[in-house]
Specification:
Helix content: 25-40%
Number of helices: 6
Structural class: alpha/beta
Largest sheet: 6 strands, mixed
CATH architecture: 4-Layer Sandwich
Mean pLDDT: 93
Order of helices and strands: HEEEHEHEHHEEEHEEEEE
CATH class: Alpha Beta
Length: 294
């Protein structure tokens, strides 16, 4: 039998493949790797000083959710079609606000934990991976640590060559989405949609001022609480969504109005074009509140 010559894959071919339009974009955010209250690989992680960190019971729960999200929910939600992934900021926890909840305050350790978590996801989406810069308190001034991580992961760079960018405008099918980490917060659940809806309206105001195409969907993070709001427009609706996080309540959350009474939210979202329209499909988990004493 004649030998079949293997096809040589060129870098230019891979780049073209990544740039092909996709109808699915998965967004996760706020993994805060390096925090003992955030997600960590079940196998643990070696530290710079030679030690080994092993995850807590909470982190093992988060890991189980993470695996279910990528192994079961994403393939089902995307109908097995190709997808892109956006990490919408705060990949690591950093050294911030005098906190003591970090696994290690060595940022190399935190970057290693994040790399171990996200590298398989970059492979899963076949390199269609984008990374957004989060909060400077977590990822260093100008998002330097997020840039270092995104470059190591092989994130798709922007026109300035930044592997971790401040925002992302991306076509999904015939629609346009805008991803950015920050959005306003509130101390009351009754007004949880206010800042998000305001951001959506302002996006249309800016587009109208300068004659730009307005986004069909804007994606924000930062608040660790998921919500969707929308406004009717010709041909359908425009939507704003805030992603859930992968970090449980920290000591800071216990003193914030609204947050201190709620259970944390974990998960991600899918933005999907189907039948000529864009849809948001969220996946959100929570955990039980503190145990009730007899």
């Amino acid at each position: 039998m004649a030998k079949t010559k293997s096809k040589k894959v060129r870098a230019s071919d891979l780049k073209r493949e990544v740039k092909k339009p996709v109808n699915n974009v998965v967004v996760v955010s706020d993994t805060h790797c390096g925090c003992a209250l955030a997600i960590c690989d079940a196998a643990g992680c070696g530290l710079d000083d030679g030690g080994l960190y092993m995850p807590s019971k909470l982190q093992l729960k988060l890991w189980a959710m993470w695996r279910e999200f990528w192994d079961e929910w994403v393939p089902e939600a995307t109908r097995g079609e190709p997808f892109a992934v956006v990490h919408n900021g705060d990949a690591i926890d950093g050294v911030h606000h005098g906190s003591t909840t970090q696994i290690s305050q060595n940022l190399s350790d935190q970057n290693e934990i994040a790399f171990r978590l996200l590298a398989p996801i970059v492979e899963l989406c076949e390199g269609r991976y984008y990374h957004i810069r989060g909060t400077e308190a977590h990822v260093a001034k100008s998002g330097a640590e997020e840039e270092r991580l995104a470059k190591r992961l092989g994130s798709i760079p922007n026109s300035e060559g930044q592997f971790a960018r401040w925002d992302l405008w991306k076509n999904v099918g015939d629609g346009l989405i805008h991803c950015l980490h920050h959005v306003g917060t509130t101390g009351s659940n009754a007004y949880e949609s206010t800042a998000v809806h305001k951001e959506l309206v302002e996006s249309f105001t800016e587009a109208g001022r300068w004659g730009h195409k307005p986004p069909s969907i804007i994606v924000r993070s930062h608040r660790h609480r998921s919500i969707i709001t929308e406004i009717p427009i010709e041909g359908g609706s425009a939507k704003a969504v805030v992603t859930p996080a992968w970090q449980s309540k920290t000591p800071f959350a216990w003193k914030i109005p609204g947050a201190r009474l709620t259970t944390p939210q974990f998960g991600g979202i899918l933005i999907r074009q189907s039948h000529g329209r864009l849809f948001i499909d969220p996946k959100t988990w929570t955990i039980a509140h503190s145990a009730t004493e007899p």
